[in-house]
Amino acid sequence: KAGVTQTPRYLIKTRGQQVTLSCSPISGHRSVSWYQQTPGQGLQFLFEYFSETQRNKGNFPGRFSGRQFSNSRSEMNVSTLELGDSALYLCASSPDYPDTQYFGPGTRLTVL
Amino acid sequence: GQQLNQSPQSMFIQEGEDVSMNCTSSSIFNTWLWYKQDPGEGPVLLIALYKAGELTSNGRLTAQFGITRKDSFLNISASIPSDVGIYFCAGQSSTIMNSGGYQKVTFGTGTKLQVIP
């Protein structure tokens, strides 16, 4: 079975721009979660989607949003980028609650 | 955001030595997970623990789910150079709602392991 895939792998943006990241879960997995990883804050939960609905949300500002499509693929959007948004953004999928999550390779976002 | 207390933060060991790291929390979890992350990659699941007291092995790796459900440890025996990386613990709790349930995963701060050949 193919693993979780994320595109693009690397992205460079400037402050004020917006960005969209994509995640394709493992086939058959309906739950997709997004995480931000930085050296200072570690792995922080952003949100989780299941059947196109956001079920759970972390403590991030409204500039961070996401959605899930009927094929379980998910996108994450960050508007009005700030320097502090530079991070590795990870997507993880699982069949459903409370199954174990499997991570993708991440998208490395650099904001200049 | 919330993180679990994971120790040690980093370790330098000789190839062939055994390694032990642990995670503690003030909260109870239903599941404990251990991941390994290589630079520039996503975490890879090593071991999942589902019951308090459970001891599970995966090759040279052994992990245990603490009796109190607030801690877990991971042991690596006979370390080899490819064990180098950052190891994360994660506690998973589940919430039941009328519309179904969802899980919340909290990660540890990570243990950076360096193996000297």
What would you say about this model in short?
The complex is a heterodimer of chains A (112) and B (117). With 112 residues, chain A is mainly β. Chain A has strands spanning 5-7, 10-13, 19-24, 31-38, 42-50, 53-57, 64-68, 74-78, 87-94, 102-103, 107-111.
Write structural notes for this entry.
The complex is a heterodimer of chains A (112) and B (117). By secondary structure, chain A is mainly beta. Helices cover 0% and strands 54% of the residues of chain A. Chain A has strands at 5-7, 10-13, 19-24, 31-38, 42-50, 53-57, 64-68, 74-78, 87-94, 102-103, 107-111. In chain A, strands 2, 4, 5, 6, 9, 10 and 11 form a seven-stranded mixed beta sheet that branches. In chain A, a hairpin with a 3-residue loop joins strand 4 (31-38) and strand 5 (42-50). Chain A is globular and about 35 Å long. The termini of chain A are far apart. In chain A, 39% of the residues are buried. The model of chain A has no long low-confidence stretch (mean pLDDT 92). With 117 residues, chain B is mainly β. Helix content of chain B is 0%, strand content 59%. Chain B has no helices and eleven strands. In chain B, strands 2, 4, 5, 9, 10 and 11 form a six-stranded mixed beta sheet that branches. Chain B is globular and about 50 Å long. Classes of the chains: A mainly beta (112), B mainly beta (117).
Class based on secondary structure composition and strand pairing of chain A? mainly beta
* Chain-averaged pLDDT of chain A: 92
Helix and strand string of chain A, N-terminal first? EEEEEEEEEEE
* Unreliably modeled segments of chain B: none
- Share in helix of chain A: under 10%
Determine the number of helices of chain A (DSSP H or I, runs of at least 4 residues).
Answer: 0
- What are the secondary-structure elements of chain B, in order, as H or E? EEEEEEEEEEE
Shape of chain A: globular
Beta-sheet strand percentage of chain B?
over 45%
Helix content of chain B: under 10%
Low-confidence parts of chain A lasting 5 or more residues at pLDDT below 50? Answer: none
Q: Given the C-alpha coordinates, what overall shape of chain B results?
A: globular
Number of helices of chain B: 0
- Rounded radius of gyration of chain B (Å): 15 Å
Number of strands of chain A: 11
Number of strands of chain B: 11
What profile does the largest beta sheet of chain B have?
6 strands, mixed
Most extensive chain contact? A-B, 31 and 28 residues
